[in-house]
Every structure is written in C-alpha cells, then in structure tokens.
Amino acid sequence: MKKTEQILRGMARENPVFFENREAFLKGLLESTAKLFTAERVSFYYCDEKNGLLRLMMRRFGGASFEAEENVRLSPDSPASGVLGSLTPAAFKNKAGYFLLAPFRIEIYSSDARREAPLQGLVKLERSLKKGRRFSPAEAALAHEYIGEFMRSYYKAEFVGLNKKYAKNLAVITELTEIFANSLRVRESFKHILSGIQTYFGFDRVRLYLIEENGQKLKGELSSDIRGQIKSIAYEEIPLEAGAHRFADIVLGHSSGVFMERYKDCVLYMPLVVQGVTIGLLIVDNLLSQQKIEPGELAMLKSFAGQIGLALDNVRLFDKVEELSLYDELTKLPLRRYFNQRFQEEFYRAERFKQPLAVIWADIDYFKEVNDTYGHQIGDRVLKEVGRVILSNLRKIDFPCRFGGDEIIILLPQATGAEAEKLAQRLAEEIREIRIPVPFSRTRELMVSVSIGISTFPQDASAIETLLEKADDALYWVKSHGRGRIALAGEVEKLKAEAKKENMGQG
C-alpha cells in the first residue's frame, strides 16, 4: 500500500501536460484523475456563491468526458458545504456508492493583471458499491494534492485560450466590418449581421429588435442560436411604454430591473443608436451555458454598435425606397412590375400543386369622365377609396395590383370561379356605397361603380397570358353591355357562342 501511495504521490507532483484551452484542461484533469484513482465517474463542479449553487461543468464516465448541466443547492449540513468551507477532502459511502470530494481554490487574474474572485469548487470521484471499494484517507489526501497541483496550471490554459481568442478577434474585426459595410442593399443582411456576431463571438443566442417607424412598438426581427439556426421572432411586439417590458425600459432608458441585475454577467442589452436616435435593441446572451461574457467581448461588441445600427438603418432605408418603387402611393396597391413577378410565382405554384387560381380584372366605370368633369383631385379621391375597399376585403394570400390608370387586377390563389365571383360581388357592393363629396356639383356627391371580369385556372386557361386575356375579355364584355356588372370568362364564352349561333340562324 505504501508503495502504491509513493507512486501516486510522485505522479501527483508531476507537472500536468500542456493544454491549449480550458476545455482540454478539464478533460485532461478528469481523465488522469479517473485513471490514477480508479474512479468510475469523475465530475468537475465550480461554486456559484452568489446563487448558492454548485454548478457542474464537465463529467467523465464510460471512458468519455463531456459537458453536462447540473446545479446542486448548497445546504449548510451537506458534505459539499463542509468540504468547501474547510478546503479538506472527504470520503463517504451511501446507498448510491462510494464517494470522494476533493476541493480546490485558485486565484484568477484578468487580462490586465487585476485579481478577480477566486475560482472555487470540487472534484467528485465515484465508485459503485458492487465493483468499487471505499476511498481510503490516504487516497483522499493524494487526490486533494494531485487536483490542487493540477489546478495551479489552470491559468496557463486560460492564458493560451485568451491569446487565441484575441488573435481570432483581430480577424473578427476585419470580417465583421466587411459584413456591416456590405449590408446596405438587401434585407437578407439582417441574417448576415446576426450570424456574423453569433459565429465570431460564440454567444448562445443573438436577438434583434427594431423600433417601428411610428415609434410605438419594439418589434422582433430575427434570432440566431449557437447551432447557427436563424428564425423569425416577428411575433414579438412590445409596446414602447415604461413598465410594459424590460426591453422597452432599456430602450427608453429606465430602470433595468431584477432580472437584468441577476443575469448581468451572461446577458448584454445593447441599444442601437444612429445620429442620436435609438432604432432598435441587440441582445446577446449565454443563458444556456451560463458562461460569463468577458469584458473584452463586451468592449469589442460595443465598439461595433454604431456600425451595426448604421447597417441596419441603411437596410431599412433601402427597403423603404424599394417598397415605394413597388407600390402605388395613391391606392397603396402594388404596381404592375411587382404584380408580374408575383403572378409568375403564383401561377407556377398553382400548376405544380394542381391548385385553382382566379384573376379578377376590375375597371372603375366612367373614370375618364370623372376626371374630365370634376378634375383629377376628385379622380384621385375615387382611386384612394376603391383601393381602401379592396385592401380591407382580401385574404393575406391574395395579391391586388393597380395595373394602370383605373384598372385593378387581383390574384386569388387557391380560389375557384365561384369564390372569386363571391368576392367580386362583395367588392362591387362596398364600392357602390362610396360617396365622394363634390360641393360644386348639382348632386353634391359622386357615386362609384366598377365593372369586373373573372377568369380561372385551369378551367379557362392553361397559360399566364391566356388567363389574363380571358379576364380582360370578360371585363370588355361587361363594359360593352352596360357596365357595373360581373362576368366570368366561362359564361362569356357561352354567351358569345349562343350569339354566334343566333346570328348564323338569322343569316
């Protein structure tokens, strides 16, 4: 036994091998400890004094070391509390097996040589009741000595890891600056910015919220997690009012609250400010891993805050300009070039999945006469009101368009002719209820009506051009037969065929 103890003591005094980072260091500690002391399971815990917890960082079991999550509440009468308080190892047995708790305490220094709070914790060694044996006092003393010696080199692994991290950060500065500089033209840039931050800093999660143009809400945009997955959080809408939510309080510059104080080491809330105006909020956190966000990371990320805010503001500005070029300012309906793109997409989808697609082509009755008689200002009022009625009656998947002048086309994906006709009737009825005040006219007001033609895929046409032609033909038939009515392309074809037969009979 004495010979075994001498061998172990000699090994315990050997300097541990060089490790390139903290994870490799802990794996080396657990592997060598398990081997030296024939422990079936070895676990590394650190002490979270603020929350009164012993937090598991890594465990070795079954020949493998792996990160694990386990929080042990430190009660005053527990073996762990006694070991940590006295810094003396303890061996004991219970129904679960044989155990040895070996405490450690090391000083930690920051990058600027300032002493931080000591790292304190314990290593738990375990043997099963069937295969193992009790840890002897000699083994407890040796394990304590060995782990203490090993942990004295902890700062070396930290130093090497920090050096690598700083080298990586230099590359990060270059690459992120390039991302921000190029993030001026497409909305996909939001994803590039978030994934860049998450990838290069290694946070558990990065979330982006932007303030709506009216300044009344903080709206979620995107969230990126440690796996690199990016998802929309557009469903999150927070009123910008004091007390409504801690995010709103941060943006408004009010009290941070208890939650922020509790998790301040692993969560960063960074308001994004452009030219003195707050446009949003970037949140990074390590809530899952509970890893402290290092001061160096905070400083670097904050140095990018202005660039991030400017890049996001430019993306939103570009989107606004693009939106203005795609939508009619008067009716708020998409313009023809946007419609052509969307029409191709919807038609392809209808063909591929064998779904119906309907087209409504509407024309405001006597619109030229309205402009000629009452002026373009009254004509604009008519267009505005018709656009309002249309937008208030459509489904989310429907797509209206101001095709030109007073002509309006509406795409109705997954809609049959009967469903399109029902919508057309509702639109026609509501449009007939429009009253435009005209004080200088005899009637004092102007009433509005529309003529509508409808075509459907695949009943009326099997190609895009033909589908539009059929709707236009149906509309032309209505306009040439009194206006203010609705006609389906299929019905118009039948009426034309019947009229042709009658003409041939008369001839």
How would you concisely characterize the structure shown here?
This protein is of the alpha+beta class. The chain is 45% helix and 25% strand.
CATH superfamily of the largest domain: Reverse transcriptase/Diguanylate cyclase domain
Low-pLDDT residue spans:
11-18, 111-115
CATH architecture of the largest domain, please?
A: 2-Layer Sandwich
What fraction of the residues are assigned to beta strands by DSSP? Answer: 15-25%
Radius of gyration: 36 Å
By CATH, the topology of the largest domain is: Alpha-Beta Plaits
Count every beta strand, where a strand is a DSSP E run of 2 or more residues: 20
Q: How many helices?
A: 16
Helix content: 40-55%
Structure description:
The chain is of the alpha+beta class and about 500 residues long. It has 3 domains: about 1-150, GAF domain (Beta-Lactamase), CATH 3.30.450.40; about 170-325, 2-Layer Sandwich (Beta-Lactamase); about 330-505, Alpha-Beta Plaits, CATH 3.30.70. The protein has helices spanning about 1-15, 20-35, 80-85, 135-150, 155-180, 190-200, 245-250, 255-260, 295-305, 305-325, 335-355, 365-375, 375-395, 415-430, 465-480, 490-505; strands at about 40-50, 55-60, 65, 70-75, 90-95, 95-105, 120-125, 205-210, 215-225, 230, 235-240, 265-275, 275-285, 355-365, 400-405, 405-415, 435, 445, 450-455, 485-490. The strands form 4 sheets. Strands 1, 2, 3, 4, 5, 6 and 7 form a 7-stranded antiparallel sheet that branches. Strand 8 and strand 9 (about 215-225) form a beta hairpin. Helix 1 (about 1-15) runs parallel beside helix 4 (about 135-150), helix 5 packs antiparallel against helix 6 and helix 5 runs parallel beside helix 10.
